[in-house]
Design a protein that fits this description.
By secondary structure, the chain is mainly beta. It has one domain. Helix content is 0%, strand content 59%. The chain is built from no helices and 6 strands. The protein has a 6-stranded antiparallel sheet with strand order 1-2-3-4-5-6, with no helix packed on it. Strand 4 and strand 5 form a beta hairpin. The radius of gyration is 18 Å and the shape is elongated.
């Protein structure tokens, strides 16, 4: 559960996200997410609903991770219209030990 408190804004924006992880191989994983986001400003209401999928994989070297994360959201401010998006990320992890049997950072969502 995430909660953001701001001094300059009325209300309390917060959200609940449910996640499911699936390990495909020792160097690949998928995370499925469903998030509901709310605000208490004026009256308690849901501001957004988001469905996302994050695919992470070691890439080329053990210390290099590629991620592709498509998502769809249904924000209240756009009358719950379908709003697609995608994020591509390339991460470099410093300090990796070559003697480590499994690269644990692949699963550090």
């Amino acid at each position: 559960m995430d909660v953001d408190w701001e001094e300059t804004e009325n209300g309390l924006p917060h959200g609940v996200t449910f996640s499911l992880f699936q390990v495909l191989r020792e160097d690949r994983a998928i995370q499925y997410d469903m998030g509901n986001f709310f605000d208490t400003r004026s009256n308690y209401h849901m501001t957004d609903m988001v469905f996302s999928l994050r695919y992470r994989q070691r890439f080329y070297r053990d210390w290099l991770v590629f991620e592709a994360a498509p998502q769809v959201s249904f924000p209240q401010e756009y009358d719950r219209e379908f709003n697609p998006g995608i994020i591509f990320r390339l991460e470099v992890h410093f300090g990796y030990k070559s003697s480590t049997k499994q690269f644990n950072n692949i699963f550090s969502f």
